[in-house]
Amino acid sequence: DFEQCDPRKCTGKKLSRFGYVKELRVHQRFAGVVLSPVGQKCISQEDAALVEERGLAVIDCSWAKLEAVPFGHLRSGSARLLPWLVAANPTNYGRPCKLSCVEALTAALVICGKEELGTELLSKFKWGHGFLSLNSKLLKQYAKCKNSGEVVAVQNSWLSSSEKSEQDQEQSSDNDDELPPLHRNMNRVDSDEEPDTENETRDDE
Question: How many domains does the chain divide into?
């Protein structure tokens, strides 16, 4: 914990108070998997045994202050990236990859086949269920991947299809003037669509 976040909103501190995690010193060796933005591989089922045996850690810092984090001093031989996911925490709701500590830990646990424990962590936060709702399809696909390469392939395929879908929607909206009145029911929201939400301007975590 680099104490860069508002302690009232820090999900890592809350998990520590509940006894789910314990704080490590900067130079303390950790033999398990560490979720880190400087990892070279995505976490996958390949890491499940190591997580089971040695544990899972997350770096508690602010996304806005990454340059101040001494990643080189963190002693772990198993740094892992998380694949593309969308945040549900109040600070970064709807923003891709800006996950809080509990969201990062939950994502890793689900991918490694420990969804029940991940859900238990999220249950300590009133908004926690939203993370699984926003990312349910992707997490299920990631959890089926045997290794990092397969996770990255799923991620890239998802992003490509999402980009194409956005382009198709833009083209469709360009032709709205040609549509008859009430052609589309504006009260209808597809189950795959997320409601519009104003993003917070802070990057606390």
Answer: 1
105-125: per-residue pLDDT in tens? 999 999 999 999 999 999 999
Whose structure tokens read 């990062």?
Answer: 104
Residue 146 forms part of a structural domain: yes
Whole-angstrom distance, CA of residue 120 vs CA of residue 158: 27
Q: What is the pLDDT of residues 79-100, one digit of tens each?
A: 899 999 999 999 889 999 889 9
Q: What residue numbers bound the domain in which 107 lies?
A: 11-157
Look at residue 112 and tell me if it is in a domain: yes
DSSP 132-195: HHHHHHHHHHHHT-SSHHHHHHHHHHHHHHHHHHHHHHHHHHHTGGGSPTTSS-TT---TTPPP
Q: Would residue 97 count as lying in a domain?
A: yes
What residues contact 76, with CB distance under 8 A and at least 6 apart? 29, 30, 31, 32, 33, 34, 36, 57
